[in-house]
Amino acid sequence: MSSVLKDRNIVLGVTGSIAAYKAAEIVRLLRKRGASVYPLMTQAATHFVHPLTLASLAAQEVALDLFETKQGRMRHLSLAELADLVLIAPATANVMGKIAHGIADDLLTTAVMATRAPVVLAPAMDEAMYENPVVQANMRELKSRGMHIIDPVKGQLASGEVGKGRMVEPQKIVDYAEGVLQSRQDFAGKLFMVTAGPTREALDKVRFISSYSSGKMGYALAEEGIDRGSRIILISGPSSLLPPPQAEFYSVETALEMKKRVMERFSEVDGVLMAAAVSDFRAKRVFSGKIKKNACTSLRLDLVQNPDILQELGRNKGDKFLVGFCAETSGLKEKAKEKLEEKNLDLIVANDITLEGAGFGGDTNVVLLVGKDGEAISLDRRSKREVARKIWDKVKEFMPT
Ligand SMILES: Cc1cc2nc3c(=O)[nH]c(=O)nc-3n(C[C@H](O)[C@H](O)[C@H](O)COP(=O)(O)O)c2cc1C
Predict the structure, then answer these.
(1) Is residue 18 within 6 Å of ligand 1 at its C-beta?
(2) Of all protein residues, whose CA lies closest to atom 10 belonging to ligand 1?
(3) Whole-prediction pTM
(4) Nearest Cα residue to atom 13 of ligand 1
(5) Domain ranges (residues) in the chain
(6) Which CATH number fits domain 191-398: 3.40.50.720, 3.40.50.10540, 3.40.50.10300, 3.40.50.1110?
(7) Ligand 1 centroid to residue 179 C-alpha, Å
(8) Sign of CA dihedral 228, 142, 105, 44
(9) How far is 177 from 166, CA to CA, in rounded Å?
(10) Regarding the domain with residue range 9-182, which homologous superfamily does it belong to in the CATH classification?
(11) Is the pLDDT of residue 1 over 70?
């Protein structure tokens, strides 16, 4: 069975403890379960394990320095943003104290400060340190802020003595991280509608107008929504993808059929993510049979506009959450903002389809998320599932609890 860690980005913070050598095994196990691992080491950690070890096992450069930017991007922000989970193992008494008190004076503590992802810490230290009331108070503080602490166990410590403070074994840490991601049911009890794929508008019995849309973005949204506890109604135009079995699935062909399905269910849902590439036009008249080429040397097609489903939803929005998508070839931000307002949306996902790795058909996307607060977040090239995750994160941020 595939692990919930598959295709997840785990930022692994490693701090200055003897147990740092175990981070190598943690990297290996996370990757074995399909995660991408981004190691981040404190200066102290580099005395215990060489960055090259973690870089080689993770197949990623190790992030070490707060002030070293990569292509102009601040590392702490890019790591904080890409993380699905921040795991700090081993976590020193020092790093826990800093995080508990809002200190952000190195790359790790600054990334933790900037992330919205869950944070898991696996402390490792000498028993006397572990029992120190200040360490205990810091751990309580971290827990009260929603961070996860994997309590250390009793066992042989680096000093040679037996006592409490030994970091739990890598396997258990990875199981724990998996459990945290699994239990992220932040849309439990909600019902969302997702539309996906292209529509097909018949010209005659054999031909149609459509688009290159594959349905991948919409299906990824449906899967992610389900994993996070939402019930999902998936309404899809023609696609070769298998719908997730937990979704209530409707297959449609034309824009008019899609509109009918969407409107039928709109009153029940908490929100709609309209990822379908609905055809703007359909033939005014569908030829019966097949248009024959020998009947004419040129052919003029009369098209009429299809209804704008999203605009109609926007007009009747109430307190439902509406996410629209747009594909543009220029002026992405301005056009996205315009559409957001014009259609009364809460969030718009804009694709610049001229970019490599963006738009129709592929497995990756490059998008700009523009929220009703006017904030625009640009996501560089990543899998459609990762884009879906960020979109749901944004929905969560705006939705009333
Ligand atoms: C040999 C050695 C082993 C250490 N082991 C630990 C440890 O297991 N846990 C801990 O909290 N600190 C340990 N320390 C102390 C930390 O390395 C020290 O507090 C350091 O400032 C932590 O920095 P960091 O939290 O930025 O990684 C150790 C220090 C040395 C020299």
Answers:
(1) yes
(2) 92
(3) 0.66
(4) 17
(5) 9-182, 191-398
(6) 3.40.50.10300
(7) 28
(8) negative
(9) 18
(10) Flavin prenyltransferase-like (3.40.50.1950)
(11) no
